[in-house]
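[step 3/7] fold_predict: job queued, chain A
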Amino acid sequence: MKISAPDLAGIRAAYEDEMGDTCVVLAYSETQDAVGAVVPGYAAGAALACLFSPVSSAEQHRADGTLAVVVARLRLPVGTAITRRDRVQLTQRFGVDLASPLTYEIEGAPYETLGFLHCDLREVTT
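[step 4/7] structure written:
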């Protein structure tokens, strides 16, 4: 079944209308310290609409046999620049500023659906 461009735009707009949360993509970069070790860094992008959905620590088995624990899922507008090395910081929930923004790592590769970009999230551990 082929979907027309206007229908696809309408579907995407409908999903974006449901995105009542706000987040910031923290784009990954790296530098080296004095001894040549890689030092990761994260640069905040612009605030964007999203839909954050906590889950009950869903365990997922990766293709390499390791286990990942997903604590939330995130919907972003199609076309959002994000990779598996980036992080996401949730700044508003239901349109209300969070007292302390929540930061998550991306679990696996983000993927595009018909109406949105999907990311599984895990808690940041240091």
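[step 5/7] annotate
The longest helix spans residues 5-17.
The radius of gyration is 16 Å.
exit 0
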